[in-house]
Structure prediction request, 341 residues.
Amino acid sequence: MKNIIIHIILFATFLCVTCETDCNSLLMGQYICPNPEYDLIDPKTQQLKGCTKEKKSKVPCLAAEGITCLESHNSTFYKDFDCKWTNGYHFDTALLLSIFFGMFGLDRFYLGYPAIGLAKFFTLGFMFLGQLIDIILIATQVVGPADGSSYVMPFFGPAVEVIRSTNSTFRLNPEECVDYPKPLEGKLSLNNKLEYSEKWLKGSLYGPESFASWNGTLYASIHGGYVVNITGNKVVPIVKLGKPCEEDFEEKICGRPLGMQFDKNGSLIVADPYYGIFKVNIQSGKKINLVSTDIEINGYKPKIPNSVAVASNGDIFWTDSSTDFLLQDGIYAVLSDGSGR
Ligand SMILES: *[C@@H]1O[C@H](CO)[C@@H](O)[C@H](O)[C@H]1NC(C)=O
Ligand SMILES: *[C@@H]1O[C@H](CO)[C@@H](O)[C@H](O)[C@H]1NC(C)=O
Ligand SMILES: *[C@@H]1O[C@H](CO)[C@@H](O)[C@H](O)[C@H]1NC(C)=O
Ligand SMILES: *[C@@H]1O[C@H](CO)[C@@H](O)[C@H](O)[C@H]1NC(C)=O
Ligand SMILES: *[C@@H]1O[C@H](CO)[C@@H](O)[C@H](O)[C@H]1NC(C)=O
Prediction:
């Protein structure tokens, strides 16, 4: 695709050697603006040279080599730039007149408001109150020259740009651009069912990860590679997914059942990050390894089978949290690019 575009550009450039182009429609990168030889700024007004009353200035630009422009028959052309039209009214002059001679209305005469100037002259600037107001209005550039021009600001001083909300500005309705979360109603409504919960089986379950229930009995996957059933206060191992191991921290040998869920027939589907996906008969404790971590899937061995979900037709969905790192090296998985699926 890139090649095609480059070819089209080359071809278009080739065409332009023999024809003349409307240089105002050139794309970025095909011209330089302003022409580096041109001195853009008028030192008197400190605005673009030749700024018109329409606040536009024609700036000479240079088309790339080989492009000939329609208007000039060579590579120079003019582009309209936005600028501030000035008509000789200096900001510092207006402000100083306002501060020192505002009571005689000289600032208003200077800026071209003779009526207000006269009124100020005869009332001593509305007894100095109007003078104070005018100082503020001029200092904040709310009042400018009467002819609509901009102040000449020394050294590109901080000219104020007033932005107004008009037809051409668009006001975003905050309601429209925010997706509010769904209201917490029905099943999602707040309740206090956990308020009276108490700790259960404290000290007798080590590292419980996942729970599932069947026919009124609760099952949990725990550290050491076991899935247990829980009756009253009794915890009974029903299956061990990994191999016999001496210490629980030898996870890679012991196995470490994580997510589990019953299918419709009461078989327990369990994910073990080191050994894969198992189907367990909870009565006999028999296990079948449905998916082994030794087998590559799409080029990668699963490294952290983590969660399972059983569909109503018996299909099993499971997540593989990493194809780069084992669970025991999970910290690296957190620090590196994601490789889960
Ligand atoms: C390009 O053409 C314009 C007028 O057609 C002329 O004023 C200008 O000097 C020319 N520039 C060059 C670089 O030849
Ligand atoms: C804004 O829109 C109204 C009606 O659509 C139009 O009459 C008016 O001229 C517009 N104003 C500007 C500044 O475009
Ligand atoms: C459910 O549990 C009861 C006893 O609590 C037992 O009699 C029954 O056979 C169990 N059903 C299944 C399907 O395991
Ligand atoms: C829990 O598992 C043990 C061992 O498999 C079994 O004897 C016991 O009946 C189970 N308890 C329940 C309530 O299923
Ligand atoms: C449940 O058992 C029936 C009959 O043995 C079998 O046809 C079906 O495939 C089983 N369903 C699942 C989800 O294992």
User: Anything to note?
Assistant: The radius of gyration is 40 Å. Residues 263-265, 314 surround 2-acetamido-2-deoxy-beta-D-glucopyranose (ligand 5) (CB under 6 Å). The CA atoms of residues 239 and 285 lie 5 Å apart. Residues 88-156 form one domain.
